[in-house]
Amino acid sequence: MAEIGRPLQAARPPTGLSPATARAYAASWRAFVRTQPADSGFPVGPVAVAAWLEARAKAGRPRQSLVVDRAALTAWCAANGEGLDVALPATRVRRTGAGVDVASLLAAARRCGPDLSGLRDRALLLLAATLDIGAEALARLTVEDISDTTDGMTVALLRPRSGHHQLRRLRRRRDPAVCPVRSWAAWRAAAQLRWGAAFRGIDAHGTVGDPLSVPGIRFLLDRALGRSDRPPHRARGTKSGSPPESSVRTAARRRTTTPAPDWVRTTLTVSGPVDAVARFRAAAQGPGIIPWQVDFDYEQARLLAPMAGKGAQAVTLARLLREASERLHQIALQHQAAGTPACAFDLHRLVPVPGPLLEAGADSCAAAAWLQAHWGTLLPLRRVEVEAPRDQRARRSARLVYRFWSAGWTPWQALEQVQTDWPELVFNIRPQYARSDAGETADAA
């Protein structure tokens, strides 16, 4: 029976606890008493305790600490004759810079295999979870940024706005499956990394290749977390023709979170026998597009999302834009079928995207994975130029010089396949990795 009227300040402490537990419980009890009126006394009541725990949860207190708080108040009230039975409040899920809760990242890390790709993905997931960073920061990480210490390692994270590095210290964990220190050491040793980017692509033969771009890291995170290959199912629109509010929010979020890619300029020189060079030039010409199958209902919702608040006029404008986009898409498909040589170096002509992936669409994770593995870039080339200077080195030989811009990275994988398909030709690839703000870009007029 609770001692009714006994002031909280004069409450008897619980007995039979270890010194450390007694100190922890006393701290929680004092924190609770400070939030109560000065004349408060027993019985405390479950309502006051639940409200206090709820306030602590909203302030960001971890669930483990809330468990201690509830146990402390239960013990102190029991020592004063009052029994409590209070449920823990729902806590907020801590999300990383990648927009994923930590528990999902740790669970995905446990599922990674022992092969080279699994070692890389595990290190990637655990660094994203423990450092609270996203794909951009992971793409900036280099081997030089990570140094070993006696009890773990130190990671220097570059802050782009200030240009300074922030040091983060990570300690070894008891469980090797979720230890970022052991996972990074295993990946670095298996990939034989000495300098440069911390995370690299791996081809079908198990060879470590070029650094992963930001879209590539996002794809790996999505694949490891088992995210849906296609956008979520969209409900039908209302009778007025406008999409439902949830669809508009989804389209707006998708539009605003897709970053503009960096564009890399590359010069490709192709030389060899005159006949072979002529055949290659004809084979490389195409419309310069990827003939995806497009869901224009979704495109209309995406176009409407930024201006949905304008009412019926916005709905009409989105419909007109959708119709114009659909007409342009049909024209592009007609050029594709007719073989119109609008682009002098068409990747889809040289390394075609398989039909099932074209049907899945540009938003498909499987299509993005295929492009990353077989092209090295997720978009068609832009601003393709070609010239055929006279080859003075040998008689009966010819030379072509292609200049183009590619999204994210030079399309190394596609160029390697082209070299394999045309063994009689010699290819010289010269990428120009300049800063995107240092000069012209692929979007320049």
TrEMBL record:
<protein>
    <submittedName>
        <fullName>Uncharacterized protein</fullName>
    </submittedName>
</protein>
<dbReference type="InterPro" id="IPR011010">
    <property type="entry name" value="DNA_brk_join_enz"/>
</dbReference>
<feature type="compositionally biased region" description="Polar residues">
    <location>
        <begin position="239"/>
        <end position="248"/>
    </location>
</feature>
<dbReference type="InterPro" id="IPR010998">
    <property type="entry name" value="Integrase_recombinase_N"/>
</dbReference>
<keyword id="KW-0233">DNA recombination</keyword>
<dbReference type="InterPro" id="IPR013762">
    <property type="entry name" value="Integrase-like_cat_sf"/>
</dbReference>
<keyword id="KW-0238">DNA-binding</keyword>
<dbReference type="GO" id="GO:0003677">
    <property type="term" value="F:DNA binding"/>
</dbReference>
<feature type="region of interest" description="Disordered">
    <location>
        <begin position="227"/>
        <end position="262"/>
    </location>
</feature>
<dbReference type="GO" id="GO:0015074">
    <property type="term" value="P:DNA integration"/>
</dbReference>
<dbReference type="GO" id="GO:0006310">
    <property type="term" value="P:DNA recombination"/>
</dbReference>
